[in-house]
Q: What sequence folds into this?
């Protein structure tokens, strides 16, 4: 029969051998957000509150990322068109939510819309904005040079009363990061995404103005 003290020593040795499972030497995961672009200034000829109350309403649907982008990982393209992700760095939410939240923040400041809701709301809006994310990547020509940040979106504006398509448009923006460092890459992502979302705001407003009122037969 084993002595109790021997059993205790055996257990302690076993636990010490497993201590590496409890304490990781990997660097802490870094979470990144995108800066919200400033809303465009619109000069109107009437009382702003009255105009907002009469304006149609919009629902922003959760974005639809292309394969490889439906994640919270920050995507990059290596030479040879090889898809990869930055190690130890993530977006603060899945890309689908990140893009939709940016659109929501910008469009809520747009006086062309009386109210803007997300797709979790039960509010019955006049229009639906659906965005596909075709590209949201840091693209490297070589491993050592700063990457080009590219954002490509395809947007549908849909009248919800009959499900008809009011119109669609594509947005493509890009810029080079200043340095091949994560802080510069994220700053470039914020700038490029901001330009793309501002373009979505302006072009959706143009479609709205060209469309018939939902109350018009």
A:
């Amino acid at each position: 029969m084993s002595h109790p003290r021997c059993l205790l020593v055996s257990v302690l040795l076993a636990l010490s051998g497993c201590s590496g499972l409890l304490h990781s030497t990997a660097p802490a995961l870094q979470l990144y957000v995108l800066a919200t672009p400033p809303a465009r200034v619109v000069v109107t000829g009437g009382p702003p509150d009255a105009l907002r109350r009469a304006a149609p309403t919009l629902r922003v649907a959760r974005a639809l990322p292309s394969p490889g982008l439906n994640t919270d990982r920050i995507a990059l393209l290596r030479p040879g068109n090889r898809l990869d992700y930055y190690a130890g760095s993530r977006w603060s939410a899945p890309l689908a939510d990140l893009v939709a939240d940016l659109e929501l923040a910008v469009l809520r400041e747009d006086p062309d819309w009386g109210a803007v809701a997300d797709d979790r709301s039960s509010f019955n809006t006049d229009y639906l904005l659906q965005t596909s994310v075709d590209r949201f990547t840091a693209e490297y020509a070589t491993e050592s040079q700063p990457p080009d940040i590219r954002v490509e979106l395809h947007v549908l504006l849909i009248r919800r009363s009959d499900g008809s398509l009011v119109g669609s448009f594509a947005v493509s923006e890009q810029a080079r990061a200043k340095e091949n460092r994560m802080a510069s890459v994220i700053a470039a992502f914020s700038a490029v995404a901001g330009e793309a979302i501002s373009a979505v705001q302006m072009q959706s407003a143009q479609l709205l103005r060209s469309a018939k009122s939902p109350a018009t037969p």
Notes: Confidence is low (pLDDT under 50) at residues 4-24, 43-47. The CA atoms of residues 63 and 110 lie 20 Å apart. The chain is about 30% helix and 30% strand. The longest strand covers residues 127-139.
